[in-house]
Design goal:
single chain; about 425 residues; alpha/beta; Cobalt-precorrin-4 Transmethylase, domain 1; Rossmann fold; 3 domains; six-stranded mixed sheet; five-stranded mixed sheet; 15 helices; globular; binds iron/sulfur cluster
Length: about 425
């Protein structure tokens, strides 16, 4: 396809960071996006809250630990990504910098219950969205508001700017990179077709970037099935009404498929399944070529892989691990963590997989595991989840918002389920 520059990596360096750390905003507040130079003062606190000894040991031993008849294999890329590390670090720095101020977080900083409860214990108040909107009415100009790694919508940013509070912006550089892409589509008169979850904070923030230009639109598809419906419309197999009946909640206001699906630029939420994002880009491009001719598609279709490099590396590492014989796979991360769900989806294709939200979902005493099966909205408990066959090999990975201490604790609990004291491992 013309203008297909999918090989450009979505690294933090590729992101369009605003220059300078501190800027006064129009209402007299201040805006920070590079921390406060307090890294050394919070380092030991961060280390004690989030590092894991068993994980260190796994990394030092080729990602393998064996005790008795149980072998744990850890994927080579796992857990905290650069964006999450930075966001959590800046939140700790903000608490240190403003010990006496009220500090709010616009939503969750990342999708990990352990990290979020640590921040709440530090006195940071979470303003959770209701029906997709955050209520900032209680925020005063002297307060501090931390913007999460996913970013916030342009509307929320503007509300905070008007309040004139201190903003500590931890939006990941890779998310900013997607915003730039969507903004460029909007500027050039293309509708952004976003592969993502319409309710996810990052996708809502990304879609809002289209609103910087009058008449610009977005349309969000979650998977291949939804992308196929878009193609059905493009190729006259589905009416405009039928399409909008299904997608009214995930398209920009006043979306008119006949007008707004003639020039399309594809982007993705950074944490989707990379393979699916690429396939959606190809599918829609080919559909446009079939409907309007190759030349038209070359001029009016663009696609760009905005999966972030951390997500890509974690997915690649788990695919590599899945080539080995494994009896079972444990994926650790928040149930609302998109990149964790992508890892669980990949694992479930090859091996019996348990997605747990936290280490204590694994109960060595009862031999049960609390987990959420892929595609389900409910947790369930499974007894006897660790196969009794011997020897047994368990693969482990974790989403980008899962800290090492939780991964290490989960590994310890897997050993304990086999009757092996984790303290004796190593
Ligand atoms: S998953 Fe990717 S985009 Fe999200 S915070 Fe981490 S590095 Fe940034």
């Amino acid at each position: 396809m013309a203008d297909t520059d999918a090989s450009v990596k979505n690294t933090p360096e590729a992101g369009g960071k605003p220059t300078g750390n501190m800027q006064a905003n129009a209402a007299g507040g201040t805006y920070f996006r590079k921390g406060f130079g307090l890294k050394s003062e919070i380092q030991s606190e961060l280390a004690s809250d989030y590092t894991g000894q068993l994980v260190d040991m796994l990394q030092a031993r080729e990602y393998t630990l064996t005790a008795g008849d149980l072998t744990i294999r850890l994927a080579k890329e796992f857990g905290f990504c650069y964006g999450v590390e930075r966001a959590v670090e800046y939140a700790y720095q903000a608490r240190k910098k403003f010990p006496d101020r009220t500090i709010y977080l616009a939503g969750e900083i990342i999708h990990n219950p352990h990290v979020n409860s640590k921040l709440q214990a530090m006195g940071i108040t979470f303003l959770m969205p209701k029906d997709g909107r955050i209520d900032f009415s209680g925020v005063k100009s002297k307060d501090v508001v931390i913007l999460p790694a996913f970013g916030v919508t342009i509307t929320d940013f503007e509300i905070l700017r008007q309040i004139g509070c201190v903003m500590v912006d931890t939006t990941c550089g890779s998310v900013l990179n997607v915003w730039k892409r969507v903004e460029s589509y909007a500027r050039d008169g293309f509708t952004s077709l976003i592969h993502g979850k319409y309710y996810h904070e990052e996708t809502r923030a990304t879609a809002s970037q289209a609103g910087k230009y009058d008449g610009a639109h977005y349309f969000i598809v979650r998977n291949m099935e939804e992308a196929n419906l878009v193609c059905d419309f493009i190729e006259n197999r589905l009416s405009s009404e039928a399409l909008m009946e299904r997608f009214a909640h995930s398209a920009s206001p006043n979306f008119d498929p006949a007008r707004d699906l003639r020039r399309i630029g594809v982007a993705n939420q950074t944490t989707m399944l990379a393979r699916e994002s690429l396939a959606i880009g190809e599918l829609v491009g080919q559909s446009m070529a079939r409907a309007h001719g190759g030349e038209y598609a070359r001029e009016n279709f663009r696609t760009f892989d905005t999966i972030c490099s951390a997500t890509q590396e974690r997915q690649d590492a788990v695919v590599e691990l899945l080539r080995e014989p494994l009896d079972v796979m444990v994926v650790i991360g928040g149930y609302n963590s998109s990149n964790t769900l992508s890892l669980a989806a990949l694992c479930s294709e090859s091996v019996r997989t348990f997605h747990v939200e936290d280490a204590d979902d694994i109960d060595p005493a009862s031999g049960r595991i609390r987990h959420r099966p892929l595609g389900s909205k409910e947790e369930t408990e499974s007894p006897g989840w660790l196969p009794e066959t011997t020897p047994v090999r368990v693969g482990v990975t974790a989403g980008a918002s899962t800290p090492n201490n939780k991964i290490g604790e989960a590994v310890g609990r897997i050993f304990a389920t086999r009757g092996i004291d984790p303290k004796t491992v190593g």
